[in-house]
Structure formats: C-alpha cells, structure tokens
Amino acid sequence: MERNIAQIALFAAMIAALGLVPQITLGFGVPITAQTLGVMLAGAVLGARRGAAAAALFLLLVALGLPLLAGGRGGLGAFVAPTAGFALGFPVAAFATGLFVEHVRLRSAGLAAGLGAVFGGIAVLYVFGATGLAIVAQKSLLEAFTLVAVFIPGDLLKAAITGMLVQALARVRPQTLAWHHQAAGPGERRL
C-alpha cells in the first residue's frame, strides 16, 4: 500500500517537474510542453489505476493553487484556459495508456508502452484537448483538431521516448512493471 502511494506521488511530481522544461506557446495559447510525457510514463509504468491516480493528484495540486502546469500556472483559473481540456484529460490519458499496456499482450514492454502512449497519451488526450479548446476558444471541433494537430509529431516522439524508457526499465528493474509480468498468465505466450 505504501509503495503504491509513493509511486503515485513520485509520478505526480514527475508530471509537475516536466512542466518546468522550457516551453513554446503557439498563437492560440496552447504550449508545447513535456508534461504529456509524464502522463504517458505514469500510465505506461504504473498501469491504469495508479497512473490515473498520479495524474489526478497532479490536477488536485494545481486546483489547490500550486503553479505546476507548464508556464507556472495553477489555481482554478487554469481549468478555463485554452489548455483546460488537455489538463482535464491527463488522468483519462494515463488510465487509457495503462489499460493498453495491461491488456495488449506484447513480448516487448517497450513496444507495448510506446503503442499505449500513442493510444492514451495522444488519441485519447487529443479528444479532451481539442474539445476543451473548441469550447474555450469558441471554435468548431474540426477547427480545434486542426489547431492541435501541430503537436502530433512532438507527441509521437514522446511516445517513442516512453517506449524506450519502459524497455530500459524492464531490463534493469522488471519488478517495477508488475503489469508486464502479470499480463501473460500460466500457459499463455506473449506476442
């Protein structure tokens, strides 16, 4: 139990720390940030529930006023900004990434994590992000998706980094990835 709490807190802190990485803000107010890498890693390493809990803890700290979002933003006002959909999607994206790695049976933990990050950290997160942008900026959903599409190449790079880091972790500390060992039951073969 204590280990789970510590891991959740550690990954919430990592998501916050990745917001300190210098950012570039595009003309419509959505910054290019490394925080989504933290969300991808939380789901890929901790699995669905604990990854989502880490992202939710991060959002709770932001809501309490800590300036943890990229650019030093925090407080309830951050949840009505153009980036609000992305931020609110963090727990769901981490959950979806974790769900993918827990249920898609691949021999390579890195490949499972990379593909899970594309699914949760890009596809699922973009639904939230574009929807939030459309609402706040009063644009159509198609316009919002078109605006956020510029982030896809960078997010694909983050998904690849997630896969590489999880593969390295699987080599040096395989016990850290409990989902990888549990995924193949007795008599099952991994793809």
Automatic annotation (TrEMBL):
Pfam families from the UniProt entry: BioY
Keywords, alphabetical: Cell membrane, Membrane, Plasmid, Transmembrane, Transmembrane helix, Transport
Superkingdom of origin: Bacteria
Localisation: Cell membrane
Record GO terms (molecular function): biotin transmembrane transporter activity
InterPro entries attached to this UniProt entry: BioY
Protein name, UniProt field: Biotin transporter
Gene3D superfamilies per UniProt: 1.10.1760.20
GO cellular component: plasma membrane
Keyword Membrane: yes
Sequence similarity: Belongs to the BioY family.
Membrane-protein topology: Multi-pass membrane protein
Organism of provenance: Paracoccus pantotrophus
Residues that span the membrane, as ranges: 6-30, 51-70, 76-101, 113-138, 144-166
